[in-house]
Amino acid sequence: MRPGKVDGAMAYIYGMRSVTATAILPASAALALAAAAAPAAAQSSFALGPVTARPGSTVSGTLTVAARGDDPGTTIPFTVVHGTTDGPVLALVAGTHGMEYVPIVALQRLRTSIDPAALRGTVVMVHVANMPSFLGRTIYYSPADGQNLNRVFPGKADGTLSERIADTITREVIARATHVVDLHCGDGNESLRPYAYWITTGEPQVAEAARQMALAFGLDHIIVDGARPTDPAASLYLSNTAVTRGKPALTTETGGMAIVDQASIGLVERGVAGLLKHLGMRAAGPDPVAAPIWIDRNEVLRAGVTGIFQATVERGHTVAAGTLIGRIMDFHGRTVEEIRAPFDGEILYVIGTPPISKGEPVAMVGTRR
Ligand SMILES: [Zn+2]
User: Fold this and answer.
1) What is this structure's pTM?
2) Cα-to-centroid distance, 148 and ligand 1 (Å)
3) How confident is the model at residue 368 (pLDDT cuts 50, 70, 90)?
């Protein structure tokens, strides 16, 4: 493991708002806290891959995932917005799933709209984490190896292309960050209402800092996610890779169905602005969401058969236990499965296109606290 303890403590310092937190910090971290609170602390340059950002500058570059065997490797484009004073390092990752376009387009706006001269700390944007999936226009899985990038973290340096992408992001981005946001939306086939995942399985102070990040991002539906692995060597998910290394992180979902809509882009921009204010990286910004809906229970409903799916509900609909969510027909028009809500709740996403294979998700239902 990397120096996760130190990073974790620093991450908490930058994210915290509670004076009681100092009691649990080691002496070195308390000193760092004092340094972080000092005005205009010296800022050094920030190097990532082939580029170096001087204080008060924005630079872009590309990380290279080297070829291995028959596969040609790939590239990971990024931007570093490096503030004039020392502070948090906020990593924003888009395109972990390559057909989730809203966050990718939102970061293209944010890369020029965040002013480094008015920034404390550093924003690292990964513009397209999963280039093979983006250029190949695939949902869920990489066309290179059939793997879901968001299930192979922390990755392997000598693994498949997806595993090498994960390894590169773990080493170059997550290891450098104090806070991480993995920006998703409904995949190319998913009709989704916006929500965030708050991972509760990390150290208590990391979970609390992540809870505050979720509130600051501003989405009014927050899934309480207590099911992520706690082993840093088998973190599986990008944001959980940060959490298992002692860094608060968030996964967000805004948009879907391969549609690039202004309202969903606006949610990402508002979310990042809220985080920058919350983390003390920028003076102005929107307030945290005041009265979020906490989704304590959720279930991804999966197809029992392969066929043609037709939804009978829409995203955001309220359903009762037993409500018909959709039907799967065989290829000669016979209904072969009816999918029903397992409990009272809300449709967080539902598949919006006809193809469905056995075992794939058809919908996600969540219940409010
Ligand atoms: Zn996704």
Assistant:
1) 0.89
2) 9
3) confident
